[in-house]
Amino acid sequence: MTEPTQNGSTPGSTPVTPAGATAGATHDSAAVRAWLSGLQTRIADTLGAFDGTPFATDTWQREPGEKLRGGGCTRILEGGQFFERGGIGFSDVAGDALPPSATAARPELNGRGFEAMGVSLVLHPRNPYCPTVHMNVRMLLATKAGEAPVFWFGGGMDLTPYYGFEEDAQHFHRVCRDALAPYGADLYPRFKRWCDEYFFLKHRNEARGVGGIFFDDYAEGGFDQAFAMLRSVGDGFLKAYLPIIEKRRATPYGEAEREFQAYRRGRYVEFNLVWDRGTHFGLQSGGRSESILMSMPPSANWRYDWQPQPGTPEARLYTDFLPVRDWI
């Protein structure tokens, strides 16, 4: 799950002041909600057909008196023919106070209530030659009685291969670039850099994967323009990911490749639990643990001080794919 609220800026990135901070800013929550729900359905139906196993549906609602209000729908596939685990969550929740992870970089929002709605997905294929992928698109409103809501959009998508293929990384980044191009030539390089900086395991000095795009605090051009950009990113997800898994799904593999996949999945777990602000936001705000943690892989392992043998495909992941580079 990717961070739904906090300023995601890191050293070298450019934070963006939410346009919603301007008095009298307008937004259309109903339009965002309808698009998000439709996006979840389209992705789940398409990938369920690809797998040959439909995604199960778990609709949930917060109980009266809980810390959060609202509900959502989790589409989940476990033990599929292709996906070992896949989760696509839609949530629309509200609370009386933003949690600490949301206000640490934005103290002026202390004491505000909030509404957060979004779609977040993580897909873990069984075949080690098929990459794990993450995508998130969201809108957040910070509310205060008598004042205009502060709104902003955030999200992005990133690819985490276990065995790297340059043409796959190039295709993924090309679709990301093309989705952003109508909204400014500067967006792809800016959001790619932000992604490279965000999805980085500082305690390992290592990237999570080959990146993609990441953005937050986005309200440039007003609601209509910013929402159009968000839709372009979300609607581009299947274009970015489906051709890759169609190409790689029949690649033969053995137990050694599965063991390396499980080892690298351990890094995915470390990032989500140690660094991901979405996980922190969800747990701090009293979110639904099953939905927050559905991004975890079904199996993972850790080895003490292990290093791949030089010249192997496993070593190439570290030398050729995890270091930050321009893919297009």
Order of helices and strands: HEEEHEEEHHEEEHHHHHH
Unreliable runs: 1-24
| Secondary-structure content class | alpha+beta
**What characteristic shape results from the CA principal axes?**
globular
How would you describe this structure to a colleague?
The longest helix has 23 residues, at 29-51. With 328 residues, the protein is α+β, with helices and mostly antiparallel strands. The chain starts with 28 loop residues before the first helix and ends in a 7-residue tail after the last helix. 37% of the residues lie in helices and 25% in strands. It is globular. The chain has helices at 29-51, 100-103, 166-180, 187-198, 222-235, 237-248, 255-274, 277-284, 289-292, 313-321, and strands at 56-61, 69-78, 83-95, 113-125, 132-144, 147-160, 200-201, 206-207, 211-218. α3 (166-180) runs antiparallel to α6 (237-248). The strands form 2 sheets. Strands 1-2-3-4-5-6-9 form a 7-stranded antiparallel beta sheet. Strands 7-8 form a two-stranded antiparallel sheet. The chain is built from 10 helices and 9 strands.
